Each structure stands twice: as structure tokens, then as C-alpha cells.
């Protein structure tokens, strides 16, 4: 009887996104082999085949097991420190069975899927607690920008990003009124800032705004740093998000540092 073919694991990749962390097991052109993704109530794992116990970072864990699989490249361990995924470690490679232990910050919702070209197993681990709160605020903050086609008649021309009109943007009445006042005073005109305050230039962004960080602050606000690119140049905007009912709204915008960083300052930095 012929043994089943072994799928070759070529890479394991990790990433953190707004609201979840991701693990990708890449098998290249080989089909994803049979697998099991098993949550557990702690971050302690038995090594295969030694049965030695290892403790990973985090208070809970996920065991990932592939059968009929082999490593094509040596893969190390990763202490990640993401909001949900704290650490990942290969815990087994014996008799065509590969296994990984994932140490996670707390028990969390998992989304497991497979993708093709190349063939991959993808595990998304949801943020929980304060990290989930920060993620919700960050997602709302990105609503300050909207995508638009560079050429309505030619989709291949690509897209740009501009400031969402203030009447539709996720911001408090106080912040909207402040921006309107500055605009009426000509503050964003050629004799002062000479640029759109939110995108940070005169023409818009040439690629999607990038979330740099989101951190909960005293008083229940969340400070979100968004990076806007104009070709290879970029500027960072700090957005202070506040909870209003069920909505997260921008309550302040900051560029640079110091007493004039806030757009609410008497003479805000551009």
C-alpha cells in the first residue's frame, strides 16, 4: 500500500490587523493537508514526540496539527506580542505530523479558512478586551478617509484617498464646528496651511491610509495614529476617538507635538 503524499510546508507568516491577528501556513503548490485547529484553556503544550511540557506566552492556546505533512525549510519560534497572538512555536515534527502551539492573550473567536494560489491555511484570532475596544475605535477613525477612482472611465488607473466630507465623517459636533471655523478663517488656504488638514497635503493620498497604532487612554478615549502617503512621503495624524452612545467619533486631531499639535489649539500646527 502506497503511503499518502506529504504536503511540504514552505513558510509560516504572522500579521496583526485591525481587530484580529493572523497566522498563515503556506504549502505553495501542494494541497493543504488534513489539519486540526483546537483551542485550549491554557498556553501549555506537550512537545511531540518527547511529551515535554512547554509554556508559551498568554493565558490560553490554540494547537494546530497537520497530518501527511513535512517541513521544506527550517522554521523558528516567534515571540510576537500581538494584541491576541502572543507567541507561536513549532511543537512537533514526527512521522509526517507537524504541530504548532499558539499562545493567545485570552480565549477568543477563531476564523479558519483555506486559500489557493498558493495553497494556505489561514487562522484569524479576534482581539478581546481593551484591544477589541481599540480596534473598534481605529476602524471608525479610518472612516475619516474615503476612496475614489482616479479616472471614472478607466478602472485600471487606480485609486486615491481623500478626506470624507465633514458632514458624513465620524467626528463630534465640536470637532466639525472647529474645522468649519478654521476653514471660514482661511486657515487651510494658501496663506496659512495651504493643505487639507486630514490628508496632510493638497492633492490627497496615493495609497490606502495605514493604521500605525491604536491605544486606550485614561478617560475612555482611544488614540489612533494613521499614516497618510503621498507617493513615498508620509505624514502621521493622531485621531482621538471618543465613545458617543454606540458610535466612536473623532473628538480631536493632532499633528506633530506640543501645545499647538491639537486642531483645537488657538493656532494649530499644520
Describe the structure.
The chain has 270 residues and is mainly β. The protein has two domains: 7-128, Sandwich (Immunoglobulin-like); 135-254, Nuclear Transport Factor 2, Chain: A, CATH 3.10.450. Helix content is 9%, strand content 44%. It has two helices and 19 strands. It has helices at residues 130-141, 173-184; strands at residues 7-9, 11-17, 20-26, 35-40, 44-46, 53-55, 60-67, 69-71, 78-79, 85-94, 97-104, 110-115, 120-126, 145-149, 159-163, 210-216, 222-230, 233-244, 247-254. The strands form six sheets. The chain has a five-stranded antiparallel β-sheet with strand order 4-7-11-10-9, with no helix packed on it. β5 and β6 (53-55) form a beta hairpin. The longest helix is centred in the middle third of the chain and has 12 residues, at 130-141. The chain starts with 6 loop residues before the first strand and ends in a 16-residue tail after the last strand.
How far apart lie the N and C ends?
73 Å
- What is the assembly state of the chains in this entry? single chain
Rg over alpha carbons: 23 Å
Taken together, the total number of domains comes to: 2
Bulk shape: elongated
State the share of residues found in helices, binned by percent: under 10%
Give the uncertain stretches in residue-range form. none
**Main sheet characteristics:** 5 strands, antiparallel
What CATH architecture of the largest domain do you see? Sandwich
Report the order of strands and helices.
EEEEEEEEEEEEEHEEHEEEE
Q: Helical region count?
A: 2
Strand percentage: 35-45%
Side by side, the strands of the main sheet go 4-7-11-10-9
CATH class of the largest domain reads: Mainly Beta
Amino acid at each position: 500500500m502506497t503511503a499518502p503524499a506529504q504536503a511540504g510546508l514552505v513558510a509560516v507568516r504572522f500579521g496583526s490587523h485591525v481587530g484580529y491577528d493572523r497566522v498563515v501556513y503556506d504549502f505553495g503548490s501542494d494541497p493543504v493537508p488534513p489539519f486540526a485547529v483546537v483551542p485550549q484553556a491554557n498556553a501549555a503544550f506537550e512537545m511531540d514526540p518527547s511529551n515535554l511540557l512547554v509554556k508559551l506566552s498568554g493565558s490560553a492556546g490554540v494547537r494546530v496539527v497537520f497530518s501527511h505533512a513535512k517541513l521544506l525549510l527550517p522554521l523558528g519560534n516567534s515571540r510576537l506580542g500581538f494584541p491576541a497572538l502572543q507567541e507561536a512555536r513549532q511543537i512537533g515534527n514526527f512521522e509526517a505530523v507537524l504541530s504548532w502551539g499558539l499562545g493567545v492573550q485570552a480565549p477568543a473567536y477563531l476564523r479558519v479558512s483555506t486559500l489557493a494560489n498558493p495553497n494556505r491555511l489561514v487562522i484569524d484570532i479576534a482581539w478581546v478586551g481593551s484591544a477589541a475596544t481599540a480596534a473598534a475605535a481605529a476602524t471608525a477613525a479610518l472612516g475619516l478617509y474615503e476612496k475614489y477612482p482616479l479616472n471614472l472611465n478607466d478602472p485600471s488607473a487606480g485609486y486615491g484617498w481623500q478626506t470624507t466630507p465633514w458632514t458624513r465623517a465620524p467626528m463630534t459636533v465640536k470637532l466639525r464646528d472647529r474645522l468649519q471655523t478654521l476653514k471660514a478663517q482661511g486657515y487651510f488656504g494658501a496663506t496659512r496651511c495651504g493643505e487639507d488638514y486630514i490628508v496632510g497635503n493638497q492633492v490627497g493620498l496615493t495609497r490606502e491610509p495605514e493604521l500605525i497604532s491604536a491605544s486606550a487612554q485614561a478617560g475612555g478615549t482611544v488614540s489612533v495614529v494613521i499614516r497618510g502617503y503621498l507617493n513615498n512621503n508620509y505624514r502621521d495624524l493622531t485621531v482621538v476617538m471618543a465613545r458617543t452612545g454606540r458610535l466612536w467619533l473623532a473628538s480631536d486631531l493632532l499633528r506633530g507635538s506640543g501645545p499647538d499639535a491639537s486642531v483645537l489649539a488657538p493656532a494649530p500646527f499644520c
